[in-house]
Predict the structure.
Amino acid sequence: MVHLTTRRLNQVDVVSNFIKRFVVLSATLLLLVACSRTVVVSGTVPTPLVAQIPVRLGVYYSDSFKTYSYDESLKSEGKWTIDLGQQNVLFFRQLFTTLFREVVELDATQLSQEAVQELGLDGVLIPEIEEYGFLTPEISGLNFYSASVKYRLGLLNREAVSVGEWRVVGYGKSEGGSFQGGQAINSATLLAIRDGGARIAINFPRLDFVRGYFTTIDREELPGLIRD
Amino acid sequence: MIRTKSTLGSLGWVIVTMALLTGCVSSRIEQSRQGVTGIGSGEAMVILGRASYNDRETEESFTACLEDILVSGSPPIRMVSESEFRDDLYPWFEARTSPKSARDLGTLFAQPGVQDRIEQANIRYLAWIEGDTITIDSGGSMSCTISTFGGGCFGMSYWEEDASYEASIWDLQNLNAAGRISADANGTSYIAGLILPIPILARPGNAACQGLAEQIRQFIVGA
């Protein structure tokens, strides 16, 4: 009888401990979820209204570009994860196919002189994200969220040798309430991509090293299109 | 009959209460014309807020307010929305790429497709709006308490707002600046705590919007 009672008490303890652990674990998980936010940047950016440059370019999107994600832990707001790689790929595909007559997407194995010449490319563009950052109203003291993306655009010639690199920063900001932070960061990041894209569409073909390189390409229409 | 009187009485109270709860706003509108204006049937106008990267820039709600007033009223003006215009002409009207003065319009229209797209949309005028509404003074104090015996608010607080906006109107047909209109409005809002908090709100931003929109309409129509 004593043995049975002890056993039953042990069973009650086990169940009680299990419930306690479950409650503690659930509370911890809830706190962790409440203090971490993930924003997968999405939205639409318009097609640029620019003159098409009559060149056939390869574009290499590295894995780091395609899967670019930014993590930051803020004391007051917990951890933020901003995933902007996929949105950048979608935008740059649209931008480059509008800006250049023919665009061929390359993989890492095709960044050689043989591959570039075999594909009949005039050159290769390599976009990268160098930096990303965002500010919340709590950090900046201003009443909006802001984001910036620093891009690096590299250009290789037909010999797969670097002709030059250009860095450009896109900036965006968006108003948002305390409970709309994710939405505001998405909007600010999308505007930063849009701003960076606008500067690339207008200024990239006018850069000295780009114009200098295009003059080496034998196309009748090119000189008129790459003037100021 | 009795019911009608009762309804009219309630309506009267609502009107009197609204009048009491609305603070006073003083506003001033100024205009300078640089050319002859007029708008044909089917021609449209677009209103763009000047974007900046500091903490002060024209609120989207202000340009939306101007659009709402101009698209209705007499005579109504056909409006092309800011987002549609910026998207259609991307990348030429972004914060850092847009023309800074009407003199840059010639260069912009030389870009492939820009003039065609504006002509397709039949946009005759573009108005750049700059300015904002800021709180220039505030003071007073009010405290609210709740207890088992009830609760209430006592005291008074106030804040003074100044709304200052300017519209630069460009003629996209003649590629020049047509003129400028500025609107300034100032008003003080109060909240008086007499058990219940009673707000007496002045809305200088709204007054500036209404004044500026009507002046833009007269300016564009050429009246």
